Amino acid sequence: MGDEEATRSCGTCHKDVAEANFALHETHCRRFLCLCPDCDEPVPKEQLDQHREEQHTEVRCSKCHLKMERRHLVDHESDRCEERLQSCHYCQLELPHRDLDQHHVVCGSRTELCRDCNRYVTLRDRPGHGDTCSATGCSATGGSAPPPPPPPPPPQTAGKLPPNNTKSTATCGCCMASFPAADVEQHELECLLASKLIYEEEEEDEDEDEDEFPEQRATTWLSRGFQGGSLWDRPRGGTGAGAGDPDRISTCPHCHLALPVVTLRWHEVKCRIVINLR
Q1: Under 8 Å between Cβ of 250 and 242
Q2: Which CATH number does the domain housing residue 1 bear?
Q3: Among 56, 77, 97, residue at a domain's last position
Q4: Which stretches of sequence are listed as region Disordered (predicted)?
Q5: Contacts (Cβ under 8 Å, ≥6 apart) of 120
Q6: Is 260 exposed, middle or buried (0-12, 13-18, 19+ CB in 10 A)?
Q7: Is residue 122 part of a domain?
Q8: Which domain holds residue 13?
Q9: If DSSP codes are grouped into helix, strand and coil, which group holds residue 199?
Q10: Which backbone phi and psi does 9 adopt, to 5 degrees?
């Protein structure tokens, strides 16, 4: 029982068969099996034609159009075909196998920001960077994690000054009167409009009184401009000499603004015109 049983190789199926059963096995193989002339494999005699058609018929790969036996097509399409689709390791984009190596070189050169050390690392080096990122950051800061970048300064409007609690004033470029800075722009618009109206009235007077002397035209314009509520028609305190003082301050009857007398004469005319336009 300890000795191994002697075997013989069957000439039909090329299997090792026990010597005691060899005669029966060989008779059975010769009766029902035959060797395929293409692959030298034992095949049932009645299935030989089907075997040759399914395994040895010549076909073409649908991707690379290479000719081969049908039995090799599955392995070729999955492992050997140069046109088979494979995914990129970095972007997961599917590309033909023949273009994948070149794509890996380009795609792996792209960089991404590492949130731990705030450095840009190529995708190719990203797997290994995770092992050295913390150590690099600690050595650079003396054993502690790298400090986060400072927050960006808040956006500021160009030319914007810090808030000032004191109310600033500005001077009108037309009448030289002082107003709050927030109101001076609106006043200048009204003041310019009033000046334009006065200029137009003056032009009309010059056209109507073209034959009069200059002194008469000036008298007519002044009497029309200061009529009804002008400085000349309103009684004021003080002597006549004080009325001609350029430093004397008086109040506009329309807007109650205190101005020098010389400036007030022109301001009253403009202020009255602005009031009439409202």
Answers
A1: no
A2: 3.30.40
A3: 56
A4: 139-163, 226-246
A5: 111, 112, 113, 114
A6: middle
A7: no
A8: 1-56
A9: helix
A10: -90, 130
pLDDT score at 196: 64
Of 36, 56, 76, the last residue of a domain is 56
Please report the pLDDT score of residue 235 as a whole number.
43
2 part of a folded domain: yes
Please report, for residues 63, 108, 128, 182, the alpha-carbon distance to residue 267 in angstroms, rounded to integers and kept in the order given: 93, 77, 81, 20
Summarize pLDDT for 175-194 with one digit per residue, the tens.
777 777 777 777 777 777 77
Domain count, the chain: 2
DSSP state of 70: G
Predicted pLDDT of residue 87: 92
Tokens read off for 276: 């009439």
Residue pLDDT, tens place only, 196-222: 666 666 666 555 555 544 445 444 544
The angle, 0 to 180 degrees and rounded to 10, between the axes of the packed helices 181-208 and 214-225 is: 140
Gyration radius from the chain CA atoms: 54
Q: Looking at the domain assignment, is residue 64 inside a domain?
A: no
